[in-house]
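Researcher: Next sequence.
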Amino acid sequence: MTASLSWYLASSLLGWLTFPLVFRLLPALTDRGYTLARTIGLLLWGWLFWLLASLGILRNDLGGVLFAFLLLLSLSFWSIVNRQSEIVNFFRANLRLVITTELLFILSFAFLALVRAANPEAVGTEKPMELAFINAILRSPTLPPHDPWMSGYSISYYHFGYILTAMLARLTGTSGNLAFNLMSALVFALTAVGSYGILYNLLAAYTGTQVDRYTSTHVDTQHREAYPWDATRNIAKHPHGTQHESAANYQLPITNYHLLALLAPLFLLILSNFEGLLEIFHGLGWFWTTNSLTANSQQPIANFWTWLNIKDLNLAPSGEGWLPDRYLWWWRASRVISDFDLVGNHQEIIDEFPAFSFVLGDLHPHILSLPFNMLGIGVALNLFLGGWRGIINIFELKLRTTPRDFLFAALVLGGLAFLNTWDILPIAALIVGAYILVSVREDGWSWARIEDAFLLGIPLAITAFILYLPFYVGFSSQAGGLLPNLINPTRGAHLWVMWGTLLIPLFAYLIYLTRDRETRPRYGTALAWTLGGILFLWAFSTLMGLAAQRVDPAFAAQYLASQNQPDAASFFQAAFARRLSYIGGLLTMASVIWLSLAHLLGSTQVDTYTGTQETTTEDVTPNSYLLTPNSTSSSFILHPSSFVLLLIILASLLILAPDFVYLRDGFGYRINTVFKFYYQAWQLWAIVAAFASAVLLRGLRGVGNVAWRLVLGLVLFAGLIYPVLAFLNKTNNFKPSNGFTLDASAHLNYYNPEDATAIQYLQSAPLGVVAEAIGGSYSNYARISTYSGQPAVLGWPWHEYQWRGNWSAHGTREADIKTLYEVVNWDVTKSIIDRYQIRYIVVGNLERATYDVSESKFQQHLVVLFKAGNTVVYGVP
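Model: Next structure:
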């Protein structure tokens, strides 16, 4: 309880003290970045500390953490000069927002902390790795931190999130084992308020109640010029004072979007795919029949479940009840997409989503980056809404931004690369896409807008790289370019199981936009671009396959034989037939991209100088101001819906891309690419689904409104089945057998008390290399280094390969440790100790089970530092 309170207060204080700086960084957002203040504070504080510590200016200790905090505090105090009244006015005008944000944060933090306290152990999946990083950073006197599973090396993985975790642990005086679970709760809460803020700002802009950047009050006609787009849905304002009121059907009441914005964290963090609903159907025995023609006439069969072909669900139900009762049944929701090679061999695909992540309890980089992705979206939205109001001249070219805004965007993007490298691509694309739309608004469309994209994107990427340069100095990766995916597009049925809870609101919104009779969505142009893009991806993938055949004929022949294909022509024919048989997924994604692009490109002619336009005032509808050309000045008016459509298109490309290509890595197929791209797409589409639901709830009237409420209710019901049942299952109905605790190592006291006490000794012992048993991933191996933070000679070998992209650093470590434990000759043992500078040698039950331990040499030549039962820690004199 005390640790939870200290983390809540520390993170809140960080956000509150940083807000004056945030107030200046995000001027076009209605909330002025208040909902993102904690995340921004954590990012800036973390970057200042990490950079200064990496340069040797600060030490990795409490003093260094506090010094970086004081630097951030100084920046924030500087930014408040001459703005005190504005900030006071902001809080007066936005008290409801502030209260809602604070309540959402504390409730979200408390909920996830309770979930983690009911199952806190860092056991299974990637948890040991994540905890090892946190404890290693806490034990490292300098940065970069030592690799806990490869002595003599620093961590070669994106680990900024673990540095932030360790900083908060130092500040609050909590151990790494507590920080592991508290950071999970904090990430959940930060993401909740961040997504809430994104939707709040979108709805505020959509309704024309965006906060004025100068007065911190609602925009009125006097200050309309501060924003170069007409934000209103209900007022079309023209320079000569003529205004047109839209139909009331399309107005969102100001009093409601504070609550409607809560849909964002619901869709993003709580809602699941349809797998939970399918579990109930499966348990009820729906769509199963008995086959009277078989020897066992009671054997159930089902064409539906075998056609759907989701693992576990294609097996007959146990008949014991409608609640899922398989061991780890909730795991299946992250594996609903199935790939098969041409001979029918199954290839597992990961399609994780945030609700699953928080049920599982991992603290992997893709989870740690969630609130910072919300920050990236916030930066793009601020840009889109007119927050970048300066000019930077680059030779003869001009960049529409200020040095402050540019550096902040680069800092956010660079931080994402350090947090979870995969995330930089979609957020960078979103920022550049928003910048292009702003350029179109200012200067109209021409191919020069592509030049604008490069003019922003290239300097932004270079600056982001430079700001985090020390990270890249020692970083290596298993990534090795692109490979073609020729035979495994996602099936339409699996796509809808995975994305249905988000696709239904999304499609409903796109259909809703077609109500605009006067705007002209460019269906033909959009269709041409959509089909052209898909054909390009298919051709690119095919050409890559043909090129691979020519580059390595021997490998190609071996692969063709494994697929029972006599030659390349037969293989490509079979691959094309597979793609046609799975056409449902492609048609779904093509439809989303086509409709979104058509509306984004749609236009209505407006004469802003005469105050006239082609539409009548009664016909102003949601699409009327999406991307509207000014007939006199060739500029455009953007509606916030344009930003939403940009989110839809970007996420759609993330989902579609792995159907054609994947990133080459140690897995050898698209498992990891689908995982990373789908996870990013969920974050974008969740915001869209929440926005669409809110707009339709307030935009539809009569039968349409009733119908949408019914549909939305069914979607929410279907999507909430999984998280409710999964959280109850994972926490044993919130009745943990060993009581509530946030200590990720507490289980050791019950299941391995001898090792637990040895680990406690090593946690406070001087830093040194540990020798312990080496074994496979996702096991109890590397337990000493994981929980103590001391560097082991080698931990999980496969994971080290994944992080480094090769086996060269491993050398003979695994064999040497085996020799260390088993050899009788002391001279050989001593040479291994000297080679790796080993300080501690652990001999416990795991070492004795793994090796034929010759312990007498340790007893004769080393010092017993600690002994508990069968676990002994020997020290090298």
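Model: Residues 176-207 form the longest helix (32 residues). The two ends are 42 Å apart (CA to CA).
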